[in-house]
Amino acid sequence: GASLLATACLMSSAALAQTVGFSQIGSESGWRAAETTLTRMEAEERGIDLKFADAQQKQENQIRAVRSFIAQGVDAILLAPVVATGWDDVLEEAKEAEIPVVLLDRMVDSSKDLYLTAVGSDLVHEGRVAGEWLVGEVGDADCNVVELQGTTGSSPAIDRKKGFEEGIAGHDNIKIVRSQTGDFTRAKGKEVMESFLKAEAPGSICALYAHNDDMAVGAIQAIKEAGLKPGEDIKVVSIDAVPDIFQAMAAGEANATVELTPNMAGPAFDALAAFWNDGTVPPDFIQTESKLYTQADDPQAIYEQKKDLGY
Ligand code: AHR
After folding, report:
1. Within 10 A of 46 (CB to CB), how many other CB atoms are there?
2. What ipTM describes this predicted complex?
3. Which of 28, 31, 108, 214 to mutate to test the pocket of ligand 1 (most atoms within 8 A of CB)?
4. Which residues does a 6 A CB cutoff place in the pocket of ligand 1?
5. Does the N-terminal or the C-terminal CB of the chain have fewer CB atoms within 10 Å?
6. Residue 288 burial by CB count (10 A; 0-12/13-18/19+): exposed, middle or buried?
7. Which alpha helices (H) appear in 169-261, and where do they start and end?
8. CB-CB contact of 228 with 202 (8 Å)
9. Residues 6+ apart with CB under 8 A from 240
10. Is the pLDDT of residue 134 over 60?
11. Cβ proximity of 150 and 118 under 8 Å
């Protein structure tokens, strides 16, 4: 009897298993890799069958993946959109097929009725926190800042730039003297920082603002190779709070980071579960926390805590 019942339960839960397609951008950063790992883990814990598609940073691959998920008749789609524009048609197609789409970590310019909800942080706020941190750090001293932007056209690159500019607004002693994309990668962060160091007069760069930690880690290497001390000669502030930046902070080579949680899938699956269950429509935007960490926060201990959390 008991084993028959168990089999029946298993069969019914198998019948209820939902299938979710996840169109991920790629693996450009440690943060992104952690988001992928945690999404897989969250899906597994909830008995969700996750179909994963890595777009290798290309929007056309993401559009193709979403179309294929629609053709397969998945129960929902998670989309981490590489850039903000160009999604209307494919989102319309998902809507016509009655497949709810949840955006993860980046936003799109499309109208809100084309997706169920978006899970993410306040990206402008993150940039503002980084800018305000620098204001507090340099006081009245003159400070020339170089900026490493994220992927061109992506919502975090647009909003983190805007937020930082808001954060330093009214402090004319702080100036952004160079700003270029490093595409959210360590390699490009290093390469572009090398070009900044060559272009600016020796000793004239006071701070680096990087839209993510990976670019900051690459840039730290470039600063060291130029014979300067990152964290001292050039202050380093960035965003994500991945384990490697805490290691750099513990070594005195980075100064501050703003945390972005890589677990966007947890809130996304919660919203989907409620929607599947009784049609509950989630809020337009499910906001995750952003927290500033500095060298005063025992970075070595945070590194130890974080290093096994999917990064
Ligand atoms: O969209 C979030 C950003 O994308 C993260 O800050 C960055 O590391 C990632 O690649």
Report:
1. 17
2. 0.99
3. 31
4. 28-29, 31-32, 105-106, 156, 184, 212, 214, 239-240, 260
5. N
6. middle
7. 186-199, 213-225, 243-250
8. no
9. 29, 30, 31, 212, 213, 214, 257, 258, 259, 260
10. yes
11. no
